[in-house]
Amino acid sequence: MPIVTAVALAFAALVVTVVCVWLVQLRTRNAGMIDPVWAASLGAVAVFAAAVGPGAALNRTAVALGGGAWGLRLGVHLWKRNYGGPEDPRYAALRERWGAAAPRNMLAFFVLQAVVSIVLSIAFFVPAWQTQTPSIPAIVVALGIGFAAIAGEGSADRQLRRYLADPANRGHVCTSGWWRYTRHPNYFFESLHWCAYTVWSIGMPYGWATLVPPCAMAFMLLKLSGVPLLEARLVHTRAGYRDYMATTSAFFPWPPRGRLERHEHAHAAHENRQERSKSS
Fold this sequence. Notes:
280 residues, mainly alpha, 2 domains, DUF1295 domain-containing protein, transmembrane, 73% helix, transmembrane helix, membrane, UstE-like
C-alpha cells in the first residue's frame, strides 16, 4: 500500500474516532475520555502501519510492539483514571471558558488531537516503509530507550497513584520517587518514548523526519497543553507547589535544589534531635 494512502486511511479513522468521543461527551459532559482513546488509537495506528507497510519485518515488528505496547499501557492507565470520575479539570476549565461555544470548540479541539496523532505517527510510518534495517548498536540503544520510557512512565504513574490514594496526602505535593527529581516525570518519559524511533531510523531514507514526533511532543507538553494548563491549577490546589516549582526541574530529572534541600536537612536534623532526646 502506498504510504500516502495508508496515512490518509489512518487519519480518517482517527477523525471518526475522535468525533465519536465528542458525540459521547455531549451527553456525559466529560471530555476527559478523549485521553485514553487518543493513546489507544495512536497505538492502533502503529499496529496498522506495521501491518500494511512494505518495510523489513524487523522494522515493522519494532513499530507494532513499541507503539502498540505504549498505546495499550497509557490507554489503560488513563481509562482507569478517568472512567466514572469527574471531568478532568483542564477540560472543565475550557468548557467554562468557552461557554455556549464549548460544543463547537471542543469538536475542533478533538479533531486537532487527530492531527497531532498523525504528526506523531511519522515515527511509525517511516521505519515501517523502509527495507533497510538499523545497525546492531542502533537497535540496542533504541530498544533501551523504548523500554526505559515505557517502564519509567508506568513507574511514575504508579508512584503518583499510590501517593494520591492516601487521604493524608490530599492537597499536598508528591515529592517521592521520580517526582523528587522532576515535576513531570510522566511527560519526560512520554517524550523520551518517541526518541526511540528516531534512533531506530538513523541512516534510513527520511529518517530525519522521525525527529519531528519527540520535538513536537516535548513542545506541546512544555508549552501548550501539558505543563502550563496543569501548573496553573496546581499552584492553587496543592500546598507548597510554588516552592516545588522553585526547587524541582520541570522536565528533565535532576536533583532538587535550594529550599527543598534545606527543608530536608532541617527535617533530618529535627528527627535526629528527637532520637537523641528519647535515648537520653
